[in-house]
Design brief:
This protein is an all-alpha fold. It folds into 2 domains: 45 residues, Orthogonal Bundle (Arc Repressor Mutant, subunit A); 116 residues. Helix content is 75%, strand content 0%. The chain is elongated. The termini are far apart.
Length: 173
Amino acid sequence: MTEKQEKILKSALELFAKEGYHATSTSKVANNAGVSEGLIFRHFKNKEGLLMAILKEGENKLNELFADIVMESDPQEVVRKAIELPFIVPESEYEFWGLQYKLKWEIEMDYSHKTEPLTMALALAFVKLNYESPQQEAEFLTLSLDAIGAALIKRSMANADKMKSFLLKKYGL
């Protein structure tokens, strides 16, 4: 990806996060990035192409985060790593992840398929750990971690360390 393409995506990310996807025009993105609007069309075709590029980057980052969990064979480690996941995201990435959360609501996007690898890894771990309802436990934990991630990004969680400790203790880790 060229430096200008990265500037365009960064600008789109900032503006979509601040003003919303529907309220942001490609001309505003271009002005903010210091490029011509034609360059946006050349590289991304249209505003939806920009959005898809940002969402694809999010999916790639999510897959990177899940990789260590999915590849883990020890079921307790799968659960521990999953619980720790929202707490290891650096604050420097909060704007990016905040946009991902905002967009899934604004454009009514179904994100459930993106968390499937995590849910499947957790379900298998809970089977190995002899949980009564491993699939429901995995779905519960995945949804809980999603909500915790959102709270961390919004900076609305009073004490993240206590929540992490609570979950680790809850699952006997």
